Amino acid sequence: MADAAPATAGTVAPSQPENPGFPPFKYETFPSQLFWLTITFAFLFVVLWRLAGPRIQSVIAARRDQINNDIRIADQFRKDAESASAAYETALAGARARAQKLAEENRKVIDDRINQAKANADADAQKSLAAAEAQIARMREEARVHVLRAAQDAAIEIVTRLIGAPVAETEAADAVRMTTER
Amino acid sequence: MAASPMEQFTIKPIIPLHLGGYDVSFTNQSLWMCIVVGGLSLFMAIAVWNRRLVPSRLQSMAEMSYEFVAGMLNMTSGEDGLKFFPFIFTIFLFILGSNFFGLIPGAYTATAQLCVTLALTMLVIFTVIVTGFIRHGLGFFKLFVIKAPLFIAVPMALLEFISFCARPMSLSMRLFANMLAGHTMLAVMAGFVVALAGAGGVLSALSIAPMLLIIGLAALEFLVAFLQAYVFAILSCIYLSEAIHLHDNH
Predict the structure, then answer these.
(1) CB of B128 within 8 A of CB of B114?
(2) pLDDT at position B226, please?
(3) What is the pLDDT of residues A67-95, one digit of tens each?
(4) Which of A101, A135, B97, B191 is most buried, taking the most CB atoms under 10 A from its CB?
(5) Phi-psi bin for B246: left (phi > 0), alpha (psi -120 to 50), beta?
(6) Minimal-distance CA residue of chain B relative to A28
(7) How far apart are CA B120 and CA B174, in angstroms?
(8) Which helix (H) or strand (E) holds B222?
(9) In angstroms, how far is CA B167 from the centroid of its own chain?
(10) Which domain range does residue B125 map to?
(11) C-alpha angle B233/B235/B237, rounded to 5°?
């Protein structure tokens, strides 16, 4: 192609100077391509290697550290909160147990007092009952004596009226006893 | 002839320059490579200027690209591979930048030149070979050996060797051809638009069809631009990983 070009260069060159041929396979452009590729690639490599890479890495690392640190602190707070909560639970349980114990003791004391009072009242009632029963027995005895005496007097009066003879009190008493014990 | 879809790949000298008998003129391609690299450097410089703990959008993008490449390298070759981070990072960003900047209408796509992609590939392969020999000496040849009976291992070694030798070609061709084909397709479609619009009548109205197609293709090209940069970078990582670990962890 290079040989053919000069022959027609006069007329065709301005509009299509290097058109014949597939552009990617035009070897005469390769030195320039490689030269500028090397320069630009090397420049970008140095920029990324020395400048951008380390800076990005440092900022990512700093952020990761910050995040890890924050997570650690938050973790610490959580643990503190958990231990505080546990302490509260323990205190609550202790207080509850103490309250239960106090209530139990109180109830026992009250029960004791009630039992005591009941026992006292029972004893008083028993005493009153016994006294009343004794009173009743005594009164019954007195009444019986009075009845016997009345019967005896009546027997003496009756015999005296019937036969006009005096009756000794002992005889009358025997007679009454005989009658009542029969 | 001006509307040839291949014309966009023509390299035109801007400042003629000769060095040691070679024509190293500053061309439209050189210009765009400078723009890409300058743009990337500027982007990086601005992005990480303040090193804020809560990143700005730019800084976030820079960090994302960093972590993307670091993750890629870490995934393929582990801690040992992080030494090569600046290299892979540069390759990835250079290709990504070239591909994306190339999508600007009128821009020159440096990666649509086989020379550029082949040079990048050779750089990778060279790094792989040098790393391999430095790390393992002649043991690097174990890369071609698999644990199998001899009658399988020998032909497999041959295949592995051929595959190793084919890598530079496949790696450079993949990127080059993708960029070339994409841009050619866009140019062809654009040519249709112009031709139809100029034809007059109903055909002019029809020119909307290739126009819509161009929009779709341009979106696809954005995907391809990223994907090819990613593919190139991750294959480089994998090749490097093989050189570092041989077949130990694969």
Answers:
(1) no
(2) 95
(3) 999 999 999 999 999 999 999 999 999 99
(4) B97
(5) left
(6) B23
(7) 12
(8) helix B208-245
(9) 14
(10) 7-245
(11) 70
Size of interface A-B (CB pairs under 8 A): 139
CB-CB: which of A23, A33, A51 is closest to B6? A23
ipTM confidence: 0.88
Confidence of residue B149 (pLDDT cuts 50, 70, 90): confident
Count the domains in chain B. Answer: 1
Q: Say how far residue A51 (Cα) sits from the centre of its chain.
A: 61
List Cβ neighbours of B53 (8 Å cut-off, separation of 6 or more).
A59, A62, A63, A66
User: CA of B157: how far to CAs of A140, A178, B154, B190, in Å?
Assistant: 139, 152, 5, 48
Helices (H) and strands (E) in chain B, counts: 7, 4
**Residue B97 located in a structural domain:** yes
Measure the CA–CA gap between A24 and A21, rounded to whole angstroms.
Answer: 9
Tell me chain A's radius of gyration from C-alpha atoms: 69
Neighbours of A14 (CB within 10 A): 8
Residue B2 lies in a domain: no
Side chain identity, residue B36 = V
Assigned domain for B1 exists = no
